[in-house]
Amino acid sequence: MLLTDMTWPDFAARAQTTRVILPIGAIEPHGPHLPLGSDTMISDHFASRLAADIDAVIAPSIGYGVATPPQRLGGDFPGVVAISGSTFTQLVTEVLTSLTEHGVRQHIIVNSAIDNISFLCEAARVVTTVFPGTRIMIVNWWDVVGEGFRNSLARETGVARSDDHHAGMVESSLIMHIAPDATQPELAESDSTGLGPRRFLYHMFPVPADAATPSGIVYTARQASADIGGRVADQVAREMAAAVRLEFDTSSARV
Q1: pTM exceeding 0.85
Q2: Closest CA to 105 of 89, 128, 121
Q3: Cβ(56)–Cβ(107) below 8 Å
């Protein structure tokens, strides 16, 4: 059930006994083949599937996230619509606070943008300190997909795990499955030179020329498909629901 579809008496009757799912995403480039809102689309998808599994309420998603460092995006491209870390933390904190003030004590944040994580943790720390008895779970879809599943997929497709991160095969496949009309798979290998950009774990501003790409493809989307996306989505949905049941002991969950 969507929070926005409920009347206030409906919400008041369920607030103290239900869990609220808050999807979190970002607006940023994902190569030339995926939409700017890919992260939010993924969070919305898994929030919907999770709510069906555990009978929870879905709050409106927060589609603005913290800016991803440009080297992870393959350079500085138009389409990064971000808010500062302090603003993001405050926004999430106030949304969680408002829900908690109305009686909600179990929150599940479904996140799909890696640079949001530390700020989400800070918001959760603040809210659980101010409201004892409140529990907040932050779950990123890639954390519950399972190492065995990812390793098996890498062997099957020949795409190494080290080449499969932001806008790579798995994420591209998810969007091809979730929102096929928003993808342009024919552009997924437009930067394929055989060498690729230089990769490093520290950050440099501005991005060094050899770490930038013509169109933002840092990791290969080779072999991406809607079929793989469907398999990944099913795996994540199962494991995410299992993790929530473990942490919240959701006796009302459907198996």
Answers
A1: yes
A2: 128
A3: no
Distances (CA, A) of 139 to 3, 31, 102, 159: 20, 25, 23, 25
Residue 203 and residue 74: Cα distance in Å, rounded?
Answer: 12
Express each pLDDT in 33-92 by its tens digit: 999 999 999 999 999 999 999 989 999 999 999 999 999 899 999 999 999 999 999 999
pLDDT tens-digit profile of 5-16?
A: 999 999 999 999
Residue with structure tokens 């990123």?
Answer: 140
CATH of 3-248, one of 1.20.140.10, 3.40.50.620, 3.40.50.10310, 3.90.10.10: 3.40.50.10310
Q: Which residues pair with 20 in a beta bridge?
A: 57, 107
Task: Please tell me whether residue 46 adopts helix, strand or coil conformation.
Answer: helix
- Encoding tokens for residue 10? 């409906």
Question: How far apart are alpha carbons 206 and 56 in whole angstroms?
Answer: 43
Distance CA 241, CA 129 (A): 26
Distance from chain centroid for Cα 196: 25
Backbone angles phi, psi at 62, to 5 degrees: -100, 110
How far apart, in Å, do the first and last CA atoms of the chain sit?
19
Find out whether 31 and 188 touch, Cβ atoms under 8 Å.
Answer: yes
The structural domains of the chain, with segments of one domain joined by +, span 3-248
Question: How many residues in total does the chain contain?
Answer: 255
Residue pair 170/232 in contact by the 8 Å Cβ criterion: yes
CA-CA distance, 78 to 75, in Å (whole number)? 10
Q: Identify which of 49, 27, 48 has the alpha carbon closest to the alpha carbon of residue 38.
A: 27
CA 210, CA 203: separation in Å to the nearest integer?
13
